[in-house]
Amino acid sequence: MLCRAACSRSGCVCCLSSTSRKLVPGLGALGSRRKHSLPDLPYDYGALEPHINAQIMQLHHSKHHAAYVNNLNIAEEKYREALEKGDVTAQVALQPAMKFNGGGHINHSIFWTNLSPNGGGEPAGELLEAIKHDFGSFKNFKEKLTAVSVGVQGSGWGWLGFSKEQGRLQIAACSNQDPLQGTTGLIPLLGIDVWEHAYYLQYKNVRPDYLKAIWNVISWENVAARYMACKK
Fold first, then answer.
1. Is 36 annotated as a binding residue?
2. In sequence order, what are the residues at sequence separation of 6 or more whose Cβ sits closer than 8 angstroms to the Cβ of residue 147?
3. Which contiguous run of DSSP H or E holds residue 114?
4. Which coenzyme or cofactor does it need (predicted)?
5. Is 61 annotated among the ligand-binding residues?
6. What's the predicted TM-score (pTM) here?
7. Tens digit of each residue's pLDDT (9 = 90 or more) over 78-91
């Protein structure tokens, strides 16, 4: 279920391949599953400076991501109760909360591993060759993903994903916390958070400056591992 080559945390939601096009995965197992928890970062809050400062990272991880986790657990508990009661109306009413908070948890769990203090530069190997094949060059890919991310209206994410159906890389944007795979079917490889809480304290409302900086901390090793795992 997980892309183990990209994430070694047991129970992590950073690559839920079985969520494809499903609004809420595993609802039938809600009564027996463990609660979600906030994953640890693989680096210190200040490790991505000067590109993303420690204050942003601390608030983003310990407050925003934590809130998605807590609210997802609350929504799932309410859903379990609604299932036990056979209350379909309540089940339907809880879908938006589960999609929003579940998506927030999935998206951020990917995002943290996509970043690294040793990141930046360009990918190598099969991932680079795939980027060149599907976008013409790494430069074209970088410009296209940046443009898509800048163009997200309000809050959302810019993504590099892999289409198993077409066997190629694709770029997509998702609104709010919509999870890439659950809404488009693309397997997430690289996500760029363009909610203002991801950059405002450092870059104010100048999203393009944040997007220019974030390329310096992209972990191509992690993205490549996700790509190779999803091709199996």
1. no
2. none
3. helix 88-114
4. Mn(2+)
5. no
6. 0.86
7. 999 999 999 999 99
